[in-house]
């Protein structure tokens, strides 16, 4: 298969996200990680910080590119000439949200398809939100996010 987009907030990227990106990069010829600029959502990291973190952790995946985007995902897909959205699914509760988003994207542009990959069981309890909560309360986030970004997360909370 050709080009796909893996979109998200990635605030921050977790080992669950990275696993989906690595696996999707083996299925598609080219994978774009789309990092959303969402002014309505208060993020810990700026979009440029998130893009830099992801670029750093995917640097050894030659067919993966990281782009920030604002506005509709389908617009980015049309700009990039991509038809497929790749998302990870952790649980039944993810399914409801993801099902709705997949249907909305397909309504906005029926040429777009969403493909789901099941998160590996060892990562199914990890979310960016829970990682931030653990880090904020001084717990260990080792094994939850890529090693390279652990100091950045700790630094961010220490500076708050
Ligand atoms: O990691 P997240 O926060 O669950 O990612 C959500 C994301 C970025 C995939 C979603 O919010 C999105 O696609 N935003 C762009 C706006 C859009 O296209 N909305 C219509 C589909 S509901």
TrEMBL record:
Keywords: ATP-binding, Coenzyme A biosynthesis, Cytoplasm, Magnesium, Nucleotide-binding, Nucleotidyltransferase, Transferase
UniProt-listed GO biological process terms: coenzyme A biosynthetic process
Record pathway: Cofactor biosynthesis; coenzyme A biosynthesis; CoA from (R)-pantothenate: step 4/5
Site (Transition state stabilizer): 17
EC number annotated for this UniProt entry: 2.7.7.3
Entry cofactors: Mg(2+)
GO CC field: cytoplasm
Xref: Gene3D superfamilies: HUPs
Domain called Cytidyltransferase-like: residue spans: 5-133
Binding site for ATP: 9-10, 17, 88-90, 98, 123-129
Catalytic activity: (R)-4'-phosphopantetheine + ATP + H(+) = 3'-dephospho-CoA + diphosphate
Keyword Nucleotidyltransferase: yes
Chain residues that bind substrate: 9, 41, 73, 87
InterPro entries per UniProt: Cyt_trans-like (IPR004821), PPAT (IPR001980), Rossmann-like_a/b/a_fold (IPR014729)
SUPFAM superfamilies: Nucleotidylyl transferase
Cell compartments where the protein resides: Cytoplasm
A GO MF label: ATP binding
Pfam families tied to this protein: CTP_transf_like
Phosphoprotein found in the keyword field: no
Subunit structure: Homohexamer.
Similarity field: Belongs to the bacterial CoaD family.
PANTHER family: PHOSPHOPANTETHEINE ADENYLYLTRANSFERASE (PTHR21342:SF1)
General function of this protein: Reversibly transfers an adenylyl group from ATP to 4'-phosphopantetheine, yielding dephospho-CoA (dPCoA) and pyrophosphate.
The protein, known as: Phosphopantetheine adenylyltransferase
Organism of provenance: Clostridium estertheticum
């Amino acid at each position: 298969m050709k080009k796909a987009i893996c979109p998200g907030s990635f605030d921050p990227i977790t080992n669950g996200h990275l696993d989906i990106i690595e696996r999707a990069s083996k299925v598609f010829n080219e994978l774009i990680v789309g990092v959303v600029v969402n002014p309505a959502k208060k993020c810990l990291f700026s979009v440029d910080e998130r893009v830099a973190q992801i670029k750093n952790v995917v640097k050894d995946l030659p067919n993966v590119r990281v782009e920030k985007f604002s506005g509709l995902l389908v617009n980015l897909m049309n700009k990039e000439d991509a038809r497929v959205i790749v998302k990870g699914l952790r649980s039944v509760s993810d399914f409801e949200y993801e099902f709705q988003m997949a249907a909305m994207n397909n309504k906005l542009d029926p040429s777009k398809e969403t493909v789901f990959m099941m998160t590996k069981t060892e990562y199914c309890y990890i979310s960016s939100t829970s990682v931030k909560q653990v880090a904020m309360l001084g717990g260990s986030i080792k094994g939850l996010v890529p090693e390279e970004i652990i100091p950045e997360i700790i630094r961010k909370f220490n500076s708050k």
